[in-house]
Amino acid sequence: MSVETEPIQSVQTPVETPRRDLWPLAANVLAWSVVAVILLAVGAWAARTGIQLRHDLWANSRTIRFKGDIINGYRRGWDVMRTAESAAGLPTNSDALAFTHAGDPKARQLTIRDIWLGIMINYDETAGQGDADYGLDYLPLRLMTMTLWVRSVERLGARDRDGFPRGGWPKSDDPSPQPEDDAQPLLDMNTICEGIAAVVMLALVWIWVGRWHGANEIVQPAWVWPKWMLAFLVASIGFWYSLQTSIGPPPRPTPMVQITNVATANNAVTVHGIVNGQEQPGRWRIQWGVTPAMERKSSIHGASESTLDVVITSQLRPVHTGDTVYLRLVATSNGFSSDTDVIQYTVGDPPLTVDQPASGGLAWPDWTVWMRMLALFTIMVATARALPLPHRGWACGLLAALLVWFDPITLINSHVWPQWDVWILPFIVSAILFATLDMWVAAGLLIGVGAMFKGQMLLGCGVLIIWPLFSGRIGATLRIAAGIALGAGFVVWPMILSTVDPHNQLRNYAAPDPVHWVLDAMVAAVLMAAASRLLPILWRAGKQHLLSPKSVTMKNTILLLGSALLIDAAWKLTLFLLHRHVPAAELSDPLLLWLTLAIILVPWILRGRFLGYWLVIVMAAVVWTAPALFNGDFAWKAVGIDYGSIKFPIMAMGNMSFSNLPQLLNLKYRWDLSDIIGTFSWGHPGDSATATDLDAKTTMSWAYGILLVFCGIAAAIQGRRKDPRTLLALSLPWLLFTMFMGQMSERYLLWFSALSAAMVGVSVGLSLLHVLLAIMAGGMIAAQLMTQYGDPGRWPGVNDFFIHNYPEIAWLMVLLTALYFVTMFLPSRKEIDRQDAKTPS
Length: 841
Known about the structure:
The chain is an alpha+beta fold. It is 56% helix and 10% strand.
């Protein structure tokens, strides 16, 4: 019996197309929109507040300003302007006259080429003088900037036929100082450089923090708002608002007043005191009486407009023996008033010496305010670092940018004591950013150009060459080195390609041969690069046809022979181009030989993707080989670099303020730059050994070089881990050479103080070290300014601390440097967690 079964029919369940959930995408866009609004709002507030703060600092610090640096810069630019006009065959002040009197047929405006010619002649005349003390130590871009500033001042101030600026110049070779407001273009340039550095720091910290996460940390979607976001925003608003209201300078300092002595003399009470008008016209008087209401007032006296303490005397009458007199000193200026505490004195008693602090001046917060602000700062950094990715990156970057923008030593250096150290700060930060992004040639170009503003650029940025070297990236090392040479070469191109006749030492500033040789050499390099690309075609054609059993066709034969002839013609043309402009005496120069071999041979062994970098390296080599072959002009180097290294033959500058290791060794142990520290020998023992005496300057330079190598090694280690501590290794050289090399100034702490703001992206502890170092750096330069111009009342606590502890503060600075140095090698806690996660249990 068979059982019939119905066939099983397969039931197909309809597959529903999943509906695309748009909520995560919309929430993600909303989240990043909110972040963009926060960044823009904070940026607008910081720009407005920072610019106003800089304006106030400039307006309220005239009493303690170093004016000599502004005057010196103006005189250097003034000399170049007159030299450029003379070389162009123009009358004095022709540029200003042509600008204000466009129809004057005898005048014309100077071009950039005219100004460069004036700079070159100025360098040659300075280097050619018999005295080795040139006085001028400006590198080309710094001198060019000063010259353009002078041109702008003369154009705006020219009002008469002679072209003399506002107020008139004496008709001599030594211009008198300009009004200080004419320095505004330089102050604007300082502000722009600070702003660029802050923005680039935001991007730099954002990138490094975004690269780094621990073994168990998950990158959350941007729309998942972290629980610490509210705390971060509240702490940030509280800290920056408190900082703005606490340290923002008033429109003018109030007058400073103090009563020192009260005595009875000639049936009157004689009051002695001190009044400091803080450079503002004002008045003072004694308010007094025999009751606490002090209903009487002495006559009004004028207060001095100087910044010095002026001793004042006032007699109060009528009084009677035994009366109790209540009195205080009151002074007003520019709408502000200051008064002392009320003093009681009994008429007829012995003289009373008053022991009370001065009142008035700039009022700074007490230590409790600073402690509360430190607590807010700690919470702000901790909450920023507690944010989950990806919000941690922009939060830490934002804080780092604000710390750069409001850095105390940067503000003082740029707008209280106007210096030009901040000009290279954006070049430093941008070079580190480009190196981070593997744009090594661009990083090198920035370093080379920045070094033509200040030579210290090469001291600190040397770590960017060592970093890829110890990372095993030889190509990156060559590319950044070529970029440095090329960037500097472009700036000094007009100088190093001018020639000198070795017989009569006449300078040819428009020599065509070196320029033509540089162009020919680059054409030759491009030719050989193109010819080397025919080698793969030749190899493939030969492999497919000559080595195959098929017969060789006429077409392939022509192809191979034509390629061979083309390659032969290329290297012969290369030799012709490299030698046709070179003087016969220089044809055997080893530089030319090696350059020729490199251009002809190297392209054949390089991969195609490296040819562009190779052409950059060749261009840098060609530019710097030209002055050796054509006897180029290096007067700019003798003046701007060589003289700068011997200008101040002392252990450290900033007397009574800057405390670094050389200053400590000098004052405590009587070391000097020329003291012999030891003897260094190399070679085989005996007659063939060579011994060299090492003086203190050389020893400290070698010590810094060794520490620089360690920084490069640390950067390679931390960079391989993608750890933000790489930023510490790349920044630390700017502190090391300032603390351990001779002839340094407290102004140079500006660079590391700004760069160490990146420690917000590393840890809370290193962020607090940044605050301490920024305070120390700002305090040193402030103490020097207050001491230099006799105005310690601006901030007596700071002045007393740094002056009374000088130079022992160097021990604290060395300790801070050592902490940074050790920390840059240590693995982060997340790296330890990562390694633990990889280790099998």
